[in-house]
Amino acid sequence: MTNRNSLHFYGRSDEEIADEYWANHIARNDSIIVDVCQGQYKSTLMCPVCNKVSVTFDPFMYLSLPLQPATTRSMTVTIFTCDGSALPAAHTVTVPKQGRCRDLIQALSSACSLQTSEKLLLAEIRGHLIYRFLEDPLLIHRREEQSTGNSQSSLGWKPYGTPLVSPISSDDTFTRGDIQQMVRTMLLPLLRTKPDSWTATPDQCNEGEDGGSCILPLQLVDENNACIDVTVGDEKVVKLSSSSMTILVFVDWSQKLLASYDTSHIETLPEVCKYGYVNKRARNEPPSLYTCLEAFLREEPLVPEDMWYCPQCKERRQASKKLDLWRLPEVLVIHLKRFSYSRSMKHKLDTFVNFPIHDFELTNYVSNKDNIRQQIYQLYALINHYGGMGSGHYSAHIKLLDENRWYNFDDNHISPINEEEVKSAAAYVLFYRRIVNETSNGVAVGPPKTASVRSSS
To answer: Alpha-carbon torsion 184, 190, 191, 196, what sign?
Structure first.
């Protein structure tokens, strides 16, 4: 049997390889069902470690489209450096929707080309404050608020900008001067004018001095929530609380200090997950069949229970998988995945899907560049499911093409229905036939003009 991956080692096109797979498939499966009802999709797997790519072309009898929310989500995370080597940079990555912090760290490490000697620390920011942080110490910015209409009257220091996180070993002894040095280093990329050295002393921080070479106005919060001035006593040792492995430092941004730094880089962060405004009409609009199809074709990582063995790494990897439609059949069967299973629960999704009855246009969804025919389908039958997980009932709607009329088949009851009644939240399996424009010997080529579906409760 031909090795699937070896087919790509000879510089052959996907079209040629897919045709060879299809010829082998129909040679072993000579059936009218294959000729009329089976299609082909392209499956691409990529190893997240070595970027090994595996491509196969497999047949399908039907498409199982998801109704539940996507299994992945995009997250935009801003990376700050602790060594002052670069400005903050936002990276958008795709992670499993039910993933863990390690999935986010792995994706970010790849996106920002993290070195083996470097480490990512995660913190969630809300309202200019640390909402949740997973690593040791943090730095919070404050800005002095002035009362309205009176520039001389102060309302106190308010949180400002994006807090920063930096690691400090709990085994090391560090002083207030070490904290000053650490904060200056973290803020170095924001300086409007980079200093040649850190030689200035507090009494040298005059109006003309730039902020990078000054002692910064830092306040260390001790275990009793009291603020300690860190601008004096450089050699004084900072003691960590026995009940906490973190320290909190405020940097108070005066107007003079703000003039020395470009704080626009820390004022706002992009939203981690953009939901955007959804108007009332959009909220009430049901998902379309196109939306379900696009979710099915979207690239996503394999679930941890279905890891892929990478032949190059010689290990099981959580590869990313991408499906593409390659060859569509005359009769296209679509299964809506209404039943959801997990370790803890099972339930049925009663989501109404707005599926087209006429002109289901799939031409642009076919990746095969040799495909020159239009892929337009028309619904001619569907199976409904009523009930839940424990028990249910099936019925069918079928269009008799000779009569150009829809009928409802419910056990031994058959009744005509209007086309508007075909769509419902019970739709489970959809049957489409390709609209045929070509003829052979003057006879239209396509599926039979009538169809029957056996339904059972």
So the answer is: positive
3-class secondary-structure state, position 366: strand
Token pair for 307: 């890891």
Q: With contact defined as beta carbons under 8 Å apart, do 111 and 124 qualify?
A: no
Q: Does the pLDDT at position 20 exceed 80?
A: yes
Q: Which pTM does this prediction carry?
A: 0.53
Residue 131 corresponds to which tokens in the numbers above? 């909402």
141-166 pLDDT, tens digit per residue, is 777 666 555 555 555 777 777 777 77
Q: Which residues contact 164 (CB under 8 A, 6 or more apart)?
A: 80, 82, 138, 139, 186, 266
| Structural tokens at position 9 | 């080692």
The one-letter amino acid at 75: M
Residues in Cβ contact with 58 at an 8 Å cutoff, skipping those fewer than 6 apart: 21, 40, 41, 43
Say how far residue 181 (Cα) sits from the centre of its chain.
Answer: 38
**Alpha-carbon span 374 to 434, nearest angstrom:** 9
Of 87, 47, 325, nearest to 190 (Cα)? 87
Top-ranked range on mean pLDDT: pick from 38-52, 115-129, 202-216, 426-440: 38-52
Which of 340, 335, 324 minimizes the C-alpha distance to 430? 335
Q: Rounded distance, CA 322 to CA 301, Å?
A: 9
Rg (CA), the chain: 31
pLDDT at residue number 279 = 47
